[in-house]
Amino acid sequence: MSLYASYMFPRLMDWVLRGERFQSERRVILASAQGLVLEIGFGTGLNLPHYPSTITALHTVEPATPLPDRVARRVASAPFPVHIQHLSAEVLPYAAGLFDCAVSTFTLCTIPDPAAALREVRRVLKPEGSFLFLEHGRSDDPSVARWQDRLNPLQQIVACGCNLNRRIDQLIVQAGFRLEQLDRYTLPGVPRIGGTMYRGRASVESRSG
Fold this sequence. Notes:
The chain is an alpha/beta fold. It has a single domain, classed as Rossmann fold. Helices cover 36% and strands 26% of the residues. It contains seven helices and seven strands. It has helices at 3-17, 20-30, 68-77, 114-124, 142-158, 168-174, 192-195; strands spanning 35-40, 55-61, 82-85, 99-105, 125-136, 177-186, 196-204. Strands 3-2-1-4-5-7-6 form a seven-stranded mixed sheet. Helix 4 links the parallel strand 4 (99-105) and strand 5 (125-136).
């Protein structure tokens, strides 16, 4: 792994994503989290302060080990147990129907196989469980989407695998979830190519298939 990917980029992303605008978004989506929670793409633990008191424990998966000292401090401050596994979300080491809630924030843009990861999230959720997501992705504006397609190869390089043009809602539905809530908007102060947002809640639609 390059110095940029292992040292510089994690610090840049932690600085950007801990800004108040992004923290406000996290507070909104995590307000309904409860029980035993799975978070895919834990990153540097920026969601931790925004989980409500209804959380009993948090299990996380994260293939990288970004800013370990910073992560350790945030985990130590959490009022609930936090269990971190350093692996990718495409194959989860958990029993089916284990979790009350699953969370993904600014993660589905980067997972190499998001369809596989979402099928695994669906598998490990209880039938009445919910999937909470906060993601950026493909714009509904054709002109913006064209620019996202043009710039995506460069984005993948400078942002270590991040994609600008994934249709997050379609990925979630195709994995067998039912969308209960979906908010589409542009994040204020962020260019539309990277600030087209998908925020919502999905439920497990079917165990068949």
